[in-house]
Write a structure and sequence with these properties.
- The chain has eight helices and 18 strands.
- The chain is α+β, with helices and mostly antiparallel strands.
- A hairpin with a 2-residue loop joins strand 1 (25-34) and strand 2 (37-47).
- The longest helix is centred in the middle third of the chain and has 18 residues, at 187-204.
- The two termini are 48 Å apart.
């Protein structure tokens, strides 16, 4: 086990809890440097008991390192990690991983090939309970009743990941950590398991941190979403908070499709290439307004020229030039226009946010 301090074994185990919900998790000022490079830069997080936090961010931003610090597989260089009122990691204490009541699910199921499904699920339980009702309850929870005597090799990839979930849930953890558990699965199965995992975590009353680089996955699974960029938490909030009220241009760019339209703001209104856009916060002068493509309506007219159509089946994106600015407009189905057609674009959404204008302007 790497990076464990000499006095780690002196720290007491996390107390047993009677609360059926998971524990609250608090992270304060956590920093981690690896190979001379800062990976975590003053991380602060609050995960209330019984909720799921989706930790979203691009590859290399520090998500897995933070998860390892919470699990006790790595020790932060600074900061506190607290479960309820019990310190797991701090300047004077570091609870070793086996003493933390934490369940982990990784990108790969990591099952023992020579053990049965039941043997894998019961691996972390006391010896007397490894073939008892706790194993059967965990398998029933993930929809695998009756598979306890099978070997992992006889199961599909999705079923193997369910076994990994059952193994983590069987120990009745106070906290669940999931590190991109669907990344090795194909798209249809990944979509199916997203809903299943959300249901499982709710049924177990678990507190969970779910790491992903997929914005759609984060929004579907997380009660709260924390967006991590370059080792820092850029914004924490509900999925709607991040999408509709991004705190920065970087957040708006990472979370979903967005136009960044040059505009002139006067108070709570901005004049843009798609007309007047109401603002959630007052602004003045030259700004960029975040306009989601679905908040723009297209109709017959002559204010804009269609450059191309991106057809997705259930909807389509019109890429047009309006007043010399590229604009993306999302519509249901195929719009019936093509390159070179003239149309009009109009903003029809709720009040949006504006940021200091960046140069050069974003291109489509």
């Amino acid at each position: 086990m790497e990076n464990l301090p000499p006095h780690a074994e002196m720290c007491p185990a996390v107390p047993t809890r009677s609360d059926p919900r998971g524990s609250a998790l608090t992270v304060r000022g956590v920093e981690r440097v690896l190979g001379g490079n800062p990976v975590l830069r003053g991380i602060n997080l609050d995960v209330p008991a019984g909720t799921v936090l989706a930790l979203l961010g691009p590859s290399g931003c520090g998500k897995t390192t933070l998860l390892r610090c919470i699990a006790g597989l790595d020790r932060p260089d600074a900061g506190l990690i607290v479960e309820d009122n019990f310190t797991l990691s701090g300047p004077d204490c570091f609870v070793s991983p086996e003493k933390r009541r934490i369940g982990m699910v990784f990108q790969e199921p990591a099952l023992f090939p020579n053990r049965t499904v039941g043997g894998n699920v019961g691996y972390g339980l006391p010896r007397a309970e490894r073939k008892g009702p706790r194993v059967e309850r965990a398998l029933a929870l993930v929809g695998l009743t009756g598979t306890a005597d099978r070997l992992p090799s006889t199961l599909s990839g999705g079923q193997q990941q369910r076994v990994a979930l059952a193994r983590a849930l069987a120990v009745e953890p106070s906290l669940m950590l999931l590190d991109e558990p669907f990344s090795a699965l194909d798209a249809p199965l990944r979509a199916e398991l997203r809903g299943e995992v959300r249901r499982l975590l709710a049924a177990a009353g678990a507190t969970a941190v779910f790491v992903t680089h997929d914005q759609e996955e984060a929004f579907l699974i997380g009660d709260q979403v924390a967006l991590m960029l370059e080792g820092r938490i850029a914004q924490v909030g509900t999925p709607a908070d991040l999408y509709e009220r991004p705190s920065s241009r970087a957040v708006a760019k990472f979370v979903g499709d967005a136009n960044f339209l040059p505009a002139t703001a006067v108070g709570d209104m901005a004049e843009t290439p798609v007309g007047r856009v109401p603002l959630a916060r007052t602004a003045h002068g030259d700004v960029e307004v975040v306009v989601r493509p679905e908040c723009i309506a297209a109709c017959q007219g002559d204010d804009a020229v269609v450059e191309r159509i991106e057809y997705y089946g259930h909807d389509a994106v019109i890429v047009a030039s309006s007043r010399g600015c590229p604009v993306r407009c999302r519509v249901m189905g195929h719009p019936g226009w093509g390159a070179g057609d003239r149309i009009s674009l109009e903003y029809v959404g709720e009040p949006s946010v504006a940021f200091e204008r960046a140069e050069p302007l974003t291109t489509v």
